[in-house]
Amino acid sequence: MNNQNVPDVIVSRLPVYLRALQRLADTGVSTTSSQELGEKVGISAAQIRKDLSQFGEFGKQGTGYHIPFLIERLSQILHVDRIWDVAVVGMGDIGHAVARYNGFANRGFRVAMCFDADPAKIGKKVCDYPIRDAKNLAQDIKEAGIKIVMLCVPASVAQDVADKLIEAGVCGILNYAPLKLIVPSHVRVQHIDPAIGLQRMTYYIP
Questions:
Q1: Pairing mode, if any, of strands 129-133 and 148-151?
Q2: How far apart are CA 91 and CA 129, in angstroms?
Q3: What is the rounded distance in angstroms from the CA atom of residue 20 to the CA atom of residue 29?
Q4: 84-89 and 109-116 as β-strands: parallel, antiparallel, unpaired?
Q5: Tens digit of each residue's pLDDT (9 = 90 or more) over 86-103
Q6: How many domains does the chain have?
Q7: Are 116 and 108 in contact (CB under 8 A)?
Q8: Contact at 8 Å (CB) between 107 and 80?
Q9: Which CATH number goes with the domain that contains 71?
């Protein structure tokens, strides 16, 4: 089930619920309540029930949620009940760290391609994959059917690279470049800027 009218803020909480449920399942727990789940993720039980109600009925009052079923349904809703091949574009420090991160596989993602424009990096292996020449970016992405890309290039070239990716059929971009990308309405962009996150945090630190 997928409802395009569900607010982004609700969708953003679903992966948090899914991760907490998977951790509970790993400990052998088979049922949970909205109260217990809320304590795990720092969200009220009422909010969790309201969020889940956007997608149907998942539990009964007094009996709680069956964890394996809820994991299955949330995975379906988030479309991570399959493995998505993703590409990393830009193999600097951030790109290397992202490509080597071992937490993607159990979340429904596999780094299948890496690209860079630096001749000194092209051909070198990262996680058993050779870094590809960015000159062939659009063609390779299109031929492989890649729909999701993690963009780790400098801000000065980020928009140009994003345009090429979108022309090649990419629908989702996780953007590490410190630049707000301008994209068509059918393309989803998530901006990741650690410096912005730090600045938000320092507001609260005397």
A1: unpaired
A2: 12
A3: 12
A4: parallel
A5: 999 999 999 999 999 988
A6: 2
A7: no
A8: yes
A9: 1.10.10.10
Q: How far apart are CA 27 and CA 42, in angstroms?
A: 20
What is the per-residue pLDDT across 127-173, written as a single tens digit (0 to 9) for each? 888 999 999 999 999 999 999 999 999 999 999 999 999 999 999 99
Indicate the length of the chain as a whole number: 206
The separation between the first and the last C-alpha atoms of the chain, rounded to the nearest angstrom, is 46
DSSP string, 56-75: ---EETTTEEEHHHHHHHHH
Contact 179, 153 (CB under 8 A): no
Q: Is the pTM of this model over 0.85?
A: yes
Same domain, 173 and 156: yes
**Would 53 be classed as within a structural domain?**
yes
% residues pLDDT > 70 (the chain): 96
Q: Which residue spans within the chain are E strands per DSSP?
A: 31-32, 59-60, 64-66, 84-89, 109-116, 125-126, 129-133, 148-151, 172-175, 188-191
Q: Residue 114 pairs with which residues in a beta bridge?
A: 88, 131
